[in-house]
Amino acid sequence: MDARIPVGVLGATGTVGQKFIKLLEDHPWFEVVELAASERSAGRPYEEAVAWKQTTAIPAPVRQLELRPCIPDLRCRVVFSGLDAGVAGPIEDSFAQAGFVVLSNSRNHRLDPDVPLIIPEVNPDHLGLIPRQKQIRRSRGYIVTNSNCSTMFLALALGPLHKVFTVEQVIVVTMQAISGAGYPGVPSLDILGNVIPYIAGEEEKMEIETRKILGRFNGETVDLADFRISAQCNRVPVEDGHTESVSLKLARKTSVEEIAEVLGSFSGPPQELRLPSAPERPILVTAAQDRPQPRFDVGLAQGMAAVVGRIRPCPVLDFKFTLLGHNTIRGAAGASILNAEMLKAQGYLENRSC
Ligand SMILES: NC(=O)c1ccc[n+]([C@@H]2O[C@H](COP(=O)([O-])OP(=O)(O)OC[C@H]3O[C@@H](n4cnc5c(N)ncnc54)[C@H](OP(=O)(O)O)[C@@H]3O)[C@@H](O)[C@H]2O)c1
Fold first, then answer.
1. 172 lines ligand 1 (CB under 6 A)
2. What is the C-alpha radius of gyration for the chain, rounded to an integer number of angstroms?
3. CA atoms of 251 and 245, how far apart (whole Å)
4. How far is Cα 65 from Cα 298, in angstroms, rounded to an integer?
């Protein structure tokens, strides 16, 4: 008998939804039994409704699954959500109210004071918001979110630095991949041979979500981390992988070598617990002077690590470095799956009816 936990994917036809399906194929703990999307797709077999854009075939067990509408009557109690942000808010609410554990990728609930915004290596204690959320909302289920894709790599890298040196100021400039805009995303005539210096809402998300993730859980809610951060976000003609140029000011004096050591040796509960999707090291530090580059480095650690390079002094703030991560894996679906693994490891999935 398969003892895996049955799960569903909301927004299963989208860029993030497809990545969920690919990453959950043969997952040791979770089995995809339900797929849901919009009314446009509902009722159709998955392989007919989806514009499959992964480099591996659609996993056999889901090819013929009939897509369901996003109504909370699915035959599972855990759902991964890759829903369009225009509709995710109320749909995710309705699933949580009905007793589902919702692992959301959308912006809608990330900043709700009772919703954990989690990177399990950095702020696993924020999961303490779950009982409070259920109490406040009188819901049987609950919502756990992961951050915006570019925030993920910044907050993952800043996590250990903030703990050891206390971050005081951050300036970040991103070069974000096209797949970050979903499918079909940015028109080719807009992005080929071009850079678009605007991604709606992205700078605001980076500036606030980073401070929530690095904030302090006070037993009731999260006090935002007390540092200033300025983000500038650009869309570039890269398929997968967000690159970020980061400058930061630290309260404690340190050196390039010590920063490299703190980042490269960092690990957290997912590594200690040997969670199935946890990378051996969540941050990989490269000494090569022209790396990381998305073409060569985005697939390191199966896309689950942040890659840091070019750590050097900054004449304006204290230090600067380059950061890279896979936006649809650690920046989206892989992050949600790691969150679900963390929930299971901490006993939050034990009562399947929540
Ligand atoms: N792409 C990334 O790198 C990334 C990273 C982090 C977070 N995110 C976030 O993840 C979410 C999904 O992004 P994406 O890039 O995967 O978008 P996407 O490719 O546009 O996919 C959106 C999904 O939402 C479904 N949907 C749309 N309208 C719906 C409705 N009225 N009812 C139910 N389902 C509906 C679509 O189903 P149909 O096919 O039936 O229309 C599709 O499955 C967004 O909130 C995004 O901000 C994306």
1. no
2. 19
3. 20
4. 31
219: left (phi over 0), alpha (psi -120 to 50) or beta: left
- Tokens representing 157 are 């890298």
CB atoms closer than 10 angstroms to residue 301? 21
Q: Which of 198, 201, 208 has the alpha carbon at shortest distance from 170?
A: 208
- Summarised one tens digit per residue, pLDDT across range 182-197 is 989 999 999 999 999 9
pTM: 0.97
Assigned token pair, 210: 């980073």
How far CA 68 is from CA of 9, 34, 46, 250, 270, in Å, comes to: 10, 8, 10, 50, 32
Q: Which residues are tagged catalytic?
A: 149, 242
Is any atom of ligand 1 closer than 6 Å to the C-beta of 7? no
Pick from 9, 10, 16 the residue to mutate for probing ligand 1's pocket: most ligand atoms within 8 Å of its CB. 16
Give residues with Cβ within 8 angstroms of 45, minimum separation 6: 63, 64, 65, 66, 67
3-class SS of residue 342 = helix
Is 90 exceeded by the pLDDT of residue 72?
yes
CA of 134 to the centre of ligand 1 (A): 26
pLDDT digits (tens, 9 = 90+) for 218-228: 999 999 999 99
Query: In this structure, which residue's CA is closest to atom 35 in ligand 1?
Result: 38
- Per-residue pLDDT band for 64 (boundaries 50, 70, 90) equals very high
Euclidean distance between CA atoms 78 and 149, whole angstroms: 22
* Closest to 147 in 3D by CA, of 118, 127, 126, 121: 118
pLDDT of residue 353: 44
- Distance from chain centroid for Cα 310: 24
Query: Could you tell me the two tokens for 151?
Result: 């925030």
Q: Which atom of ligand 1 is nearest to the CA of 86?
A: 28
What is the DSSP track for 298-321? TTGGGGTSEEEEEEEE-SSSSEEE
149 pocket-lining for ligand 1 (C-beta < 6 Å): yes
Q: Report whether residue 11 contacts ligand 1, using a CB cutoff of 6 Å.
A: yes
pLDDT, tens digit, 9 for 90 and up, residues 87-131: 999 999 999 999 999 999 999 999 999 999 999 999 999 999 999
Looking at ligand 1, which residue's alpha carbon is closest to its atom 43? 11
